[in-house]
Write a structure and sequence with these properties.
2 domains; Rossmann fold; 14 helices; alpha/beta; 10 strands; 45% helix; two-stranded antiparallel sheet; 360 residues; single chain
């Protein structure tokens, strides 16, 4: 009997060793970002104090004389440099000095000193102002560009209206428009159509359990995170036709731009942001009702199968906006992350926006 147990332990060890080695190989990374050979190029990754809290920065530029583009990260609380690391064909840094901002206590800025009660919309807007001031002074610019991605559009959009003097233009990629039954119903109809075409009875059942049917034919989702998990299975999530694991988790695990500790903190910070005052403050919004007038040009970029932030709502929002310049761009072959899914078309749009607005 003892001999059998000993053999079993040996077998388990033999099986476990390659699994552990594979896991170590996946997780281990140098934490380095892409670099360039051009004399005026810049590649930096650092954490600095902004308004009494740690903030993280990834900066890529082939020429620091180019305009500065501040990319306000998604989530909120999710760092997006992971996609620039993963999708190597994306070269926005050819046209801009691109600043990926990890706001207070998220991703590389996460540490055990985190004070969740200080993660509020007001503080993040004040941080945006301070970050903008820092970038303008550092790169000797009168104005910069501000681009919000997904959850980051809540912050960037409001700051563009608060302080138009700081920016050439506002760009919303995968713009959040409304937290309403209209939003949930568009997502529901998209998923139902996809799962019905696939004869996917399992996911159709999950979908019905995930929503509350209202009397007017619309629906309201019961839990946003469960809803988005289903959306990934339907092909309209973060990366077109990829599950949450393939589209988000695997890129984080295999990325080279974060150390192992930073990967762990990435997840810790992302989960932490869901329990902050900010999370509650962003409930129940509809920007079509109270954020429609801007003193700077406003542009929106959506993927043609983006139903995380349904593109139809973004198009409708664009039509309601009054601004000195505006535009809505629908990018083919992409869902929620057109900059990385179809970098050629999206960078072409961003280059065009730059050329239209440089004198503004």
């Amino acid at each position: 009997m003892k001999e059998n147990k000993r053999k079993m332990v040996i077998v388990l060890i033999v099986l476990a060793v390659p699994v552990l080695l594979l896991l170590a190989w996946v997780l281990m990374s140098p934490g380095k970002i892409r670099t360039y050979k051009e004399p005026n190029s810049l590649s930096e990754k650092f954490v600095m104090d902004i308004n009494g809290a740690p903030n993280g920065f990834f900066i890529n530029s082939r020429d620091i004389n180019n305009p500065v583009l501040l990319l306000v990260s998604s989530g909120p609380g999710t760092d997006d440099y992971v996609f620039t690391d993963k999708y190597e064909d994306m070269h926005l840094e050819d046209y801009f000095t691109v600043v990926y901002w990890d706001y207070r206590w998220m991703c590389i800025a996460y540490d055990n000193s985190v004070r969740k009660d200080e993660i509020t919309l007001r503080n993040l807007l004040d941080d945006t102002k301070a970050v903008t001031r820092y970038l303008k002074e550092r790169f000797n610019k009168d104005k910069i560009y501000i681009m919000g991605f997904s959850g980051g559009t809540h912050i960037a959009l409001r700051e563009a209206q608060r302080h138009p003097e700081d920016y050439h233009a506002y760009i919303g990629m995968a713009q959040c428009v409304t937290d309403s039954k209209e939003n949930d119903t568009l997502i529901y109809n998209f998923m139902k159509d996809v799962f019905t075409r696939r004869s996917d009875k399992k996911n159709l059942s999950k979908l019905e359990s995930a929503v509350e049917h209202l009397g007017d034919g619309s629906v309201k989702c019961r839990n946003w995170y469960d809803y988005v998990m289903l959306l990934h299975d339907a092909g309209g999530g973060t990366i077109k036709d990829k599950t949450e694991f393939a589209g988000i988790t695997w890129p984080i695990l295999t990325s080279k731009c974060y150390t192992v500790k930073e990967k762990i903190n990435y997840v810790r910070g992302m989960k932490m942001y869901r329990t902050t005052p900010l999370s509650k403050e962003l409930d129940g919004f509809d920007y079509r009702e109270n954020l429609t007038e801007f003193k700077i040009p406003v542009y929106f970029i959506s993927g043609e199968t983006d139903y995380n932030c349904p593109w139809e709502l973004v198009k409708d929002y664009n039509e309601k906006i009054k601004a000195p310049g505006k535009g809505f761009y629908l990018i083919k072959d992409s869902a929620h992350s057109p900059l990385w899914e179809n970098p050629e078309d999206t960078c072409k749009v961003l280059k065009d926006i730059k050329e239209k607005t440089q004198n503004g």
